[in-house]
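Subject: sequence -> structure tokens, single chain

Hey, anyone have a minute? Need the predicted structure for the following. Not urgent.
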Amino acid sequence: MLVGEVLSRLRQLQNPAAVQALQKQGVTPRAALGVSEQDLRKLAAEIGVDRLIAQQLWASGIHDARVLASMVDDPARVTPKQMERWVRDFDSWALCDACCVNLFDKTPFAYAKAVAWSARKEEYVKRAAFSLVAALAQTDQKAADSEFLRFIPIIKREAADERPFVRKSIAWALKEVGKRNKSLKKIALDTAKELDKLEAKSAHWIATDAIKELSAAPKSSKSAAPKAAKRSAKVSA
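Reply:
Had a minute. Here:
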């Protein structure tokens, strides 16, 4: 499939009403078609892993095409340079989270980038750091607890950031780390209680959100794992 055909298919699937709905959620990219995630994933399945198309879709500048690019690129061939180039192009939380949960978390550079980006000032770069932590906590089942414990001081350091899309990703990261096991849950709850004592309103918001979810009774064991990569939209909007 050539990139021209893919872009034509995307335009056929465009939905102006969905674009308006995205805008109400704070998703205001320069160019969006409003293609549903379900349709994007169907198209991604048709394309398969195709690094060339992924690069061409990203270069189009179209929001939906870039989300699709994150679904069809080859994580084994993604380089740190590409990650830096793409993260600078993030113009919405939706694109940020899509790249983190579809692609970046599957690269060997994910943990290092999460640490590095957490210290950056740009809103969506910083968000990407914590969205990556959340995605890794969901999907990297072989990781040792120590991989996530290193982010606890970072979460404390950045909890005073008042920007909504940043604080929501910090809360998301803290919650997902706490859901990995009992030990990390206790540490996440203790961290949230520490944040609750800080003066920053954002820290209090993060603490309240994390405590509420981590203290809730566990849901039915109809495993939520297969849906993990799709949770960002619900958590972050």
